[in-house]
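ok so I'm stuck.
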Amino acid sequence: MSTPHVAPSLEGLVRSALHRSWWLLLLRGIAAVAFGVLTFVWPQISLLTLILVYGIYAVADGVLALIAAVRGGGFAPRWWLALGGVVSILAGVLAFALPGLTALVLVYLIGFWSIMRGVLEIIGAVRLRKEIANEWSLGAAGVLSVILGLILVFMPGAGAMGLLWLIAAWAVLFGLLLIWVAFRVRKLAKA
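replied:
not stuck anymore, here's the structure
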């Protein structure tokens, strides 16, 4: 006599996915904080170095988002994570392939990338508002990204040092919020 098969609950599936992927959020947050801190530590960084550092960060963020999409655990649907990952990787590859980009093109590249990523983070927060507590932090990270992107797109003539510090501050705040979300997700998954 076999026992009847019971389908897992939606809550169980979400918790399982979150439990498997909390560390990807943590790594993405650490990468963002590291990028921001390095930019603060070396404010006289050259445009080429900024492009390379940005490229490394964008590729790392994209790869981690794609891993989360493949594993099926994250704060957004798989296809949103995959799309965000592909956009990040393409932005990073573009930065490596064309290191002689002008400052204006780099500003627009980072600006549009930040807007796209921010929108994805906000959508993820809205979609998970019933599954996790304090989803506002994920939404806040998305809002910060959108604000940074809009500033860069509509005020590209900002001074290079101000731009570097703005990018660094965004990266640190965004990274800290993702780290906080990662530990909240881990705690929720264990509950």
